[in-house]
Amino acid sequence: MPIITISRGSLSATEMLAKRVSERIKCPVVTREDVLKAAEKYGIKETGLGELSFVEKSPRLLDKMGDTKRQYLGCFQTALFDFALKGDLIYHGHLAQFLLSKIPYVLRVLLTASTEFRIRTLMEEGGKSRDEVISRIKAIDERRLKWSQFLYGVNWKDPSHYDLVINIERVSMDLAADLITKAVAAKEFQSTTEATTMLRNLHLASLAEVYLQQSPRTRGSEVEIDADSTTGSLVVTGNCPRVGAGMWESDIRAVLSKVEGVKTIEVKKSLVSFYE
Q: What pLDDT, on a 0 to 100 scale, did the predictor assign at position 160?
């Protein structure tokens, strides 16, 4: 059950490469738009972040306030896990590999090229002047860096976040597709029973987080959730106020009891005084 993510800068090569790899390994291609559509049932539209282009806009001050980011990531991640649980998956877009980082068999690919190559390519694709293209590349790079730092606290260009970095200035699309096809066939990127169980556990925990963020009673709760999808158990760990601790736990239990597949809920709370 291969899962491949392909990230890139400002070139259209990602879509082309994803299609070629898909044809070779008979694996469906999923885009950010597909995931956003699937995440609507989890309430992602309420966050307003799904409507923003990571290329055209930078995070707003309003986005950095409250629980918007946490709710958006929970909705998007849960929908992405939905796709992953169906089987093979090639995701092309931006930043999704960070939401799949705990799944060991994901092959993370980064496409890169020199600035001059990007300039020439965009000039040919869009018929823009050199100065216009340079300005656009600079803006795109700045915005994507801001989004990766805002959402995940990382520099998305750091090669340590990837398993395979391909310079498309020197490597043809066919060769790039061959390299990915060969890499994903290696044992390191093959799903195992344990890894599949891990994915199901992560999906259940992510779904539980979505439920907490959806409910006015528990939205903003700073908790960590560990899930066991086999037994249907959740372990919720977090800080709660000394005053109202019973109600805090009761609200969490009431909301999480509605999550499909959940049978038992254990709440581990640390009482803190600064809420009083």
A: 93
